[in-house]
Batch of 4 targets.
Target 1
Amino acid sequence: MHILHVISSPRSSSFSIQLGHQIVEKLLAAHPGSTVRERNLATHPMPHLEEAYLQSMYTPAEARTPAQQAALRHSDEAIQELLEADVLVLGAPFYNFGIPATLKSWIDHLCRSGITFSYTAAGPKGLITGKKVYVALSSGGVYSEGPMAVYDFVAPYLRATLGFLGLTDMEVVRVEGTAVPELAATALPKAIASIEV
Ligand SMILES: Cc1cc2nc3c(=O)[nH]c(=O)nc-3n(C[C@H](O)[C@H](O)[C@H](O)COP(=O)(O)O)c2cc1C
């Protein structure tokens, strides 16, 4: 099994990174001999989508100039890495009610009509299928239940966008309340105990 671990927290003591590593460890224990590839979007961010990228994306592959091909390099790489994986472990810190811009940029680079999704008579169809996704979602507050649950735009967003690409088999593991004094100490052990692979 090939595991792709995507990191998007820039913090060395990150909860989402620690939780992601724990998910990877459990997967390795359950599937000995598996390989792990790590993509760190905090240390190696992908550029925001620029005009050259968009022009190239809408140009048929056979008509692209070398410069246009180069503009798609990050996207091609990100898609290839994901296609080669059987399992995606996705670290997602909760930032300002959404995800870090680096993670959003990675997702933008993954969404390519005709490559990762297509439109059919029956509606849109995701083309990245047969993979399992584990989201290691860290948040200062609590969004799984209670009054803040309506402000959880992260898990629904990831389900919608990655599901649109065909990644519909998704488990969200939460380390939450990391900024709540009475929850902070137990947040990570509780999250780790809830991992099911
Ligand atoms: C820029 C920034 C924005 C944040 N926004 C939110 C937020 O909207 N809601 C929340 O509950 N926590 C928020 N937090 C707290 C983080 O979600 C929390 O510290 C989490 O553990 C960060 O993930 P990490 O430990 O993997 O870095 C924010 C933290 C930062 C640094």
Target 2
Amino acid sequence: MKITAASHGGNYNELAKKHGLTKEMVLDFSANINPLGVPASLKQTITANLDQLVEYPEPDYLALRARIASFHQLDLANVIPGNGATELIFGIAKVTKAQKVLLLAPTFAEYERAFFDAEIVYAELTNETHFAAAKIVLATLERETDIDAVCLCNPNNPTGQLISQQEMVQIASLCEKRNIYLIIDEAFMDFLEDNETISMIPYLQQFPHLAIIRAFTKFFAIPGLRLGYLLTKNDLLAEALLQMREPWSINTFADLAGQILFDDTDYINQTYSWLSAEREFLYEGLTGFPELTVYRPSVNYIFFHLEKPLDLRKELLVKGIFIRSCANYRGLSENYYRVAVKSRDDNSQLLSALEVVFSGN
Ligand SMILES: Cc1ncc(COP(=O)(O)O)c(C=O)c1O
């Protein structure tokens, strides 16, 4: 069965309504968005530039691309901006025209929808290896000789598992040798403070078949604004992506956001200090429940397995807390869940609610 966009976990309105809860009454742990919210610097920029709405955005997005390029020490020509990471996932699926694609299972559902007319080969991740991906990807590549694109999510959503830079270089080398496009979705990578030692951005020059997708969405808490970008040193790929894009797909405010957000060091530093404290707090709290097997998180969400038969999402929803059931991810059963790391107050509420659920009250 093809997965539709409507089945994404963050869309809890319907379920909440069914239980007589309004959006305001529910603590949403299902969407992995930075709880610091929209950066003040962005609010100021948008307010100060409201009148720019009377003009079309600059069609080539030169200033935006230049800022992203300088942030990553690349050239403007290596940066293709998009209306969220999603537009670029669908864009690259189109331009590579891949007929046989390797995807992780489980992983983010949109790759499968983007490569809808390709044969999909799954690198099936298992709990026995803590959902580690590299070895399985390499083995699948060795076995399947006619793959023309590999699309990986690093860190993977929903498991949070990382493929190390060293492992990814091995995968990229094999892909390069066999003319296979390697697409890496690094939508959550910026939540890792030392992401330069994990991201494949430093290897773009070495691997012309490599394309990396990033998003402003999660880290800067702007899923409603829509801004992502793709990085590649492959001129043909970059040109094809630029040629096929619809004009003005990035709105004026998203264009401005991308030009200022990397300079908001206060927000960036606050995010790192919130995350290092709260991820540890929530992880420690969750591991304290014998009912749960919790996987060590790398970024701003935590993946776990419930060891007893219980509809945990429903149990928590009636207590005003919404978590992501991972039952609709390929390769996962209904006892897998994912929660976002939120503020201390919210994380404590989740832990208290779990305490009540598991003690049977
Ligand atoms: C791994 C991953 N990539 C991309 C996206 C989509 O990002 P955007 O909202 O920037 O299109 C998501 C959203 O959930 C995601 O989890």
Target 3
Amino acid sequence: MNPTISLMKNHRSVRRFTDQAISEEELRTIIDAGRAASSWKNFQSYSIILIRSQAKKEAIYQLVPQEAILQADTFLLFVGDLNRAQKGVALHTEDFYPAGPENLLISSVDASLAAQNTLLAAESLGYGGVIIGLVRYAAKEIGQLVNLPAYTYPIFGMALGKPAQENAVKPRLPYDSIVFSEEYQEQEAEIIEDYDQVQAAYAGQRAPSSWSERLAQQFGEPANQASQNYLKDQKLL
Ligand SMILES: Cc1cc2nc3c(=O)[nH]c(=O)nc-3n(C[C@H](O)[C@H](O)[C@H](O)COP(=O)(O)O)c2cc1C
């Protein structure tokens, strides 16, 4: 163990914040640490929109009713971005092929790595936060609210602030059911059932459904179409 690993293993999402502000300087430091993450071919195919005005936080909350957005000092909107790439491409050719899953993976992975670095940097300074993927269910409206141009899309938000609550660290799946030696190992359903119990013990009265029931709610039904529709509007699908 060292302080970095200890910080990483102590991560828990924070959804309730005090009024304490993050200073401009700290915020810049946090985001610059986030931006130090690796990216595909160093393309940095994402942008981050800082939302600090209460009016805009409230406008986002109207679309994505998650209390953390209202309470956060800062809401960061992570945007997958091939708009900047288009300008670079146009210096050399009129051809441009931004659409499709491969390019979505490029921008989504780049944004995710930067976001996780950002969250850890914030945590290292005594702040906390939560990633808000539900912005994708209002992708079009969020896009309009922050003036997203073609070839960009909202991937997730991140509410950041001074924690007003300290949850216990959420237990992960057992190491051996995630990490395999040399080749993939199919899992028995028993592992899932055991983890349902672990999660139930962690969440107590708070959880309205089990972990595997939430899997069924997510993947046992057709995916929400909002992202897909907006990605088509944005010429990314
Ligand atoms: C891509 C992504 C999207 C998420 N979206 C939401 C969200 O919309 N609302 C929320 O409360 N938590 C959201 N979370 C937080 C997860 O629920 C949380 O990370 C997970 O339950 C593990 O808990 P922990 O972060 O406290 O360890 C999201 C996390 C990720 C990585």
Target 4
Amino acid sequence: MERKAFLRTLGAGAAFALTFPSIQGCSKDGNGGENPVPEGVDFTIDLNSAEGANLQNNGDFILKNDVVVVKNLEGNFVAASQICSHQQTDQVRFIAENGGFFRCFTHGSEFDQNGTPLNTITSNPLKIFNTELNGNILRVFD
Ligand code: FES
């Protein structure tokens, strides 16, 4: 009788030990790579700073606060979420080809500079932020 009780206890404990990590595993898998799309974005970049030096040439871009800040091929500043609208990985980058567009390197979603999807991987638009240039200070904001 005592042995049965012991085995029952062990069984429940073992079941718990086996179940709990697998729940954690599923949760981790389900959220793996998912990041919130940046909200309340409002920052500046001094174009004369070391950071700004990386935005001197048309086609240059930098990553800051989960935003891809771009000097496009026409020399205008545009900014998009680095967090993809497909499955929220942070793999969106600017591609300085074919007029300039955004690509997420996770599954290959592409977006124009207005955030409109260019292929069928997702129909969700990419979040685009406002930019404003005052002298050498570039402001990026929601
Ligand atoms: S998460 Fe970007 S294309 Fe799938």
